[in-house]
Amino acid sequence: MKIALMDSGIGLLAAAAAVRRLRPDADLVLSSDPGSMPWGPRTPEDVTRRALAVARAAAAHRPDALIVACNTASVHALPTLRAELEPALPVVGTVPAIKPAAAGGGPFAIWATPATTGSPYQRGLIHDFARDVDVTEVPCPGLADAIEHADDEAIGRAVAAAAALTPAGVTDVVLGCTHYELVAERIRTAVEGGRSAGLAPLVLHGSAEAVAAQALRRIGAAPAPSAEPAGTLTVLLAGHAGDVPEPALAYAEGLLLKAVGPALRPAEAS
Length: 270
Prior knowledge:
- The chain contains 11 helices and 10 strands.
- It is an alpha/beta fold.
- This is Glutamate racemase.
């Protein structure tokens, strides 16, 4: 079994780690283009062009499924990716977990990139799944880029700024960018520090576990977390074989991918 994941940068780590936990025997292909980060401010046409290039590089390795582990690419490029790659290659997009957050009925916040915040796409999800719930859209300028470079101080500033815009009464926070899941506990701590007294513990909603499970369903595979950790790891950077980027090793998800399963050397992955 081989699962490919694509993103602009290391935001795909959370979903890749989720796949690794569900199927440690699955081969993984991680395809990204960190030199073009961030994708959020780019035009939809530019995002689609770049997403296609990253997806084609992954598809060349003949995976059984492709996870678009990027909210921006899912918003702008998913129809184009599916039109080109399906049905031969199932394509799984990433949607912010607004529906499960709304199910609790309490007020919640959506942390997302400035381009996604207030977008027709996000507003449509709110209308469809959370029209009767108090929702606050929180833009997080610079956070994805800071996470991409593992810039601890910049992450701290961006998280603090977004937490200051998050109402004190929220019960849940939706992580509307895959990069944000890599610093979920820092986000939790920052938001908890500004919440009203007496509230239940904050619930964070990411997408990694859901897209990993969906990818397995699309190819008819069941979770097998106790399988032998024999899955290989292929890393593609702008279409060229490489290694897990150094900043990725600042996160637990990046360390997991390096530690579990034999990683392919660049010469073997080309």
